[in-house]
Amino acid sequence: MPLSVPLDRAAPWLLRALWVVLPFTVGPVLGDALDAASRPVQVVAATGLWAAWGAGAVASAVALPLALTALRVLAPAVVACAVAAALGGHASPLAIGWAAVVLGWAYSPLIGARWVNGPAYPNERRFLLRAPGTLLCGPLAVVWAAAVAGVAAGPLLLAARVWVGGVIACVIGLPLAAVLLRGVHDLSRRWLVFVPAGIVLHDPLTVVDPVLFRRQTVTRLGPAPAGALDLTQKAPGLALEITLDDETELALVRPGRRLGESVKATRMLVTPTRPGAVLDEARRRRLPVD
Predict the structure, then answer these.
(1) What letter does residue 240 receive in the DSSP assignment?
(2) Would residue 267 count as lying in a domain?
(3) Total domains in the fold of the chain
(4) Would you state the pLDDT for residue 150?
(5) Is the four-CA dihedral 277, 280, 281, 287 of positive or negative sign?
(6) Quick one: pLDDT at residue 228?
(7) What is the pLDDT of residue 4?
(8) Which of 168, 173, 178, 159 is nearest to 73 (CA)?
(9) CA-to-CA distance for 185 and 44, rounded, in angstroms?
(10) Which of 90, 119, 148 is the last residue of a domain?
(11) Are residues 88 and 197 in the same domain?
(12) CB 230 within 8 A of CB 220
């Protein structure tokens, strides 16, 4: 039996185990780092940390795209907290190492595949697309940091009795965080979906509405040569080409255009996180694979 089969099944349980143990691996150093803070700050910070851990525990137990977004927002925050504690004189190789493992596993393709398929119909199979390369170069980290700061800054400032700054941070930061996190959630909603009728491109960052490529029109699915319509958003990794026997119309997302930009193409490029699994699924559904 291939190793990938049991690993697919074990991936969610391993993630849950890693997350459940966080209070015993990262928790002690965070507690030490808060010792010098005032009592109100300690209470607010501890409440926030436990709330974040609880949200992550729920997200690790419920396979949904929204839960995937929560995990991929909270896991980097765990690393950031462990590193901040270390910079404050409370270094712990165990805490940093464990947080890094949680981060890596939360972002693994196996977890992404399981979580986006949680609410899928029995006859469909979703494959997560890689994040756009232009976002990975820096903007995504800035958006994440602004969202996390928007949630945490206001309550901590109020606990520290910085009343004006705390009120301003809450009034501005919380709505800003909601907007930013909604944008981040779109990364968990970018899929290539196999359905009985063919292949659906569901990508709110690229196309205005999901596009169905009917199975009778698909003439090839395989590694991409040059010259096709690039829908990868410059995502790193192996791009796959979908070739059709006739032109199909797509409404591409364009800033400032509610209906997008209409284009026609017979060849499209996508970059799934697991291209090999995509080709295996296409073969299973008897689609032409090169």
Answers:
(1) E
(2) yes
(3) 2
(4) 96
(5) positive
(6) 83
(7) 47
(8) 178
(9) 26
(10) 119
(11) no
(12) no
Residues paired with residue 218 on neighbouring β-strands, in sequence order: 244
Rounded CA-CA distance 290/267 in Å is: 14
The residue from 86, 119, 152 where one domain ends is: 119
The greatest distance separating any two alpha carbons of the chain, rounded to the nearest whole angstrom, comes to: 68
Query: Distance between CA atoms of 189 and 69, rounded to whole angstroms?
Result: 9
Q: Give the containing element (helix H, strand E) for 116.
A: helix 109-116
Q: Same domain for 9 and 106?
A: yes
Give the pLDDT of residue 90. Answer: 95
Decide if 283 contacts 289 (C-beta within 8 A). Answer: yes
Structural domain boundaries enclosing 14 = 1-119
**Dihedral sign, CA of 115, 200, 209, 227?**
positive
d(Cα 48, Cα 2) in Å, to the nearest integer?
Answer: 42
Interacting residues of 189 by C-beta distance below 8 A, sequence separation 6+: 65, 202, 203, 204
Among 266, 189, 272, residue whose Cα is nearest residue 238: 272
User: Does 97 fall in a domain?
Assistant: yes
List, as own/partner pairs, every contact residues 238-241 make where C-beta atoms lie below 8 angstroms and the sequence separation is at least 24, other chains included: 238/271, 238/275, 239/269, 239/270, 239/271, 240/269, 240/270, 240/271, 240/272, 240/275, 240/278, 240/279, 241/267, 241/268, 241/269
Structural contact between residues 114 and 130, judged by C-beta atoms closer than 8 angstroms: no
Q: 163-168: which pairs have CB atoms within 8 A and are 24 or more residues apart? A: none
pLDDT of residue 1: 37
87 in the same domain as 1: yes
Point out the residues of the chain with pLDDT beneath 70.
1-5
